[in-house]
Each structure stands twice: as structure tokens, then as C-alpha cells.
């Protein structure tokens, strides 16, 4: 609708310089980011419920992580990233099947100041090259099964450092 200039012009004329106030109660807008709140929430859960199970792998119910394990592994991953030159604003592309490593990678990347770009796990070179060129990651997180194909794809994508 906003691209329909005639409609927008008519709508503006109908306002007659009136102030329109919502009848709804104002919603408080938090000052911190969603990522900052998520990291804070993980820290709180890790301190209050360290041994509670946070995630269970869907395909293998034997694999699970507690809040404390996610917290500790995420900070460890963040430290690894920064030790490899990962900087604020860098991207991590995650090409994993559904697994318990997802929250670790996400929280760790956020703690290091980066963002996470999802990719589907592929097994063909051209699919990885396409995904890496689109996401311009600094780091790619994959499974061992995809290692050879991704290494070849990374050689065609200069943004990847790790």
C-alpha cells in the first residue's frame, strides 16, 4: 500500500494535520538487544538451573545438554572464534543437521559479537559454493561428513577465514 502514491497522498490529505493517538497502552521498548537478552537469559538459567536439561537431540535422545553445558561451551566457542581473528560483525554459517550443537554455536557466535547465518547441510560442491557466496561468512561450522566438499567450496569463497 505504501508504494501506491495516489492512495498515500489521499490518505495524508484525509489527516487534516490531526494528531492520531493510539488507544492502546504504550509498550515498553527494551534498551538492550534481543541477543543481549538471550545471552543474559542463558547465564541466568545456567546459574539457577545448571543441571537441568536444556536440549535433547531429536534423532538421538541419548544426546542432551544442560544449561550450564550450553553456557560453558558457548563461551568456549566464542573464545575460539576470537582467537582466530573473528571480530564484531563477522558471520558464521552453520551447515549442520538438527543437533544439540545449534544453541552452542548460536550463543557462542553472539557472545563473540557476530551473527549466525543458517545453511542447509549439502553434499554437492556447487550447493556449498552458492550458500557460502550468498552468506559471506568468516567461519563455517559443518559435520565431518561434509569436510572435504566444504574445504573445496571455501577455496572459491575468499570471505571464509576459519
As residue ranges, the low-confidence spans are none
The topology string of helices and strands comes to HHEEHEHEHEH
CA radius of gyration is 22 Å
Strand content: 5-15%
Q: Considering DSSP H and I runs of 4 or more, what fraction of the residues is helical?
A: 40-55%
The total count of strands amounts to 5
With strands numbered from the N-terminus, the spatial order across the biggest sheet is 4-3-5
User: How many helices does DSSP assign?
Assistant: 6
| Principal-axis shape | extended
The structural class is alpha/beta
For the record, give the distance between the C-alpha atoms at the N and C termini, rounded to a whole number. 44 Å
User: What's the mean pLDDT score?
Assistant: 87
Task: Provide a quick synopsis of the model.
The chain is of the alpha/beta class and 162 residues long.
Q: Which features would summarize this protein structure in a list?
A:
6 helices, alpha/beta, 162 residues, 5 strands, two-stranded antiparallel sheet, 3-stranded parallel β-sheet
Amino acid at each position: 500500500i505504501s508504494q501506491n502514491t495516489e492512495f498515500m497522498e489521499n490518505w495524508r490529505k484525509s489527516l487534516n494535520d490531526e494528531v492520531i493517538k493510539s488507544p492502546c497502552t504504550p509498550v515498553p521498548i527494551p534498551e538492550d538487544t534481543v541477543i543481549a537478552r538471550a545471552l543474559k537469559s542463558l547465564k541466568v538459567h545456567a546459574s539457577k538451573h545448571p543441571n537441568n536439561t536444556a536440549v535433547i537431540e531429536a534423532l538421538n535422545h541419548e544426546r542432551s545438554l544442560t544449561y550450564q553445558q550450553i553456557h560453558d561451551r558457548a563461551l568456549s566457542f566464542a573464545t575460539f572464534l576470537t582467537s582466530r581473528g573473528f571480530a564484531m560483525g563477522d558471520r558464521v554459517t552453520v551447515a549442520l543437521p538438527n543437533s544439540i550443537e545449534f544453541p552452542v554455536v548460536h550463543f557462542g557466535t553472539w557472545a563473540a559479537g557476530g551473527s549466525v547465518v543458517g545453511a542447509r547441510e549439502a553434499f554437492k560442491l556447487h550447493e556449498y559454493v552458492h550458500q557460502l557466496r550468498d552468506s559471506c561468512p568468516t567461519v563455517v561450522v559443518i559435520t565431518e561428513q561434509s569436510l572435504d566438499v566444504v574445504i573445496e567450496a571455501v577455496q572459491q569463497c575468499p570471505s571464509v577465514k576459519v
